[in-house]
């Protein structure tokens, strides 16, 4: 079965949400405070991307 554009966007959203969780989980494990902060900031950035994908799926518009 061929994926639609919406399917690709939904997959991208799920992948991005998973990256947010992964970066946060890793940040709890590392000892280096600079790396910990970097991972948390990166997770926050990915969270913004996830929100943009979600918004686009809901409204069909890019912020």
Q: Which geometry do the CA atoms define?
A: elongated
What is the total number of structural domains?
Answer: 1
Give the integer mean of the pLDDT values: 94
Structural class: mainly alpha
* Major sheet description: none
Portion of residues in beta strands equals under 5%
Question: Low-confidence stretches at least 5 residues in length (pLDDT < 50)?
Answer: none
Could you tell me the radius of gyration in angstroms? 14 Å
Question: Helicity, in percent?
Answer: over 70%
Number of helices: 2
How many β strands by DSSP?
A: 0
H/E element order: HH
Termini, distance in Å? 31 Å
InterPro entries: Ferritin-like, Ferritin-like_SF
Protein name: Rubrerythrin diiron-binding domain-containing protein
Organism: Clostridium aminobutyricum
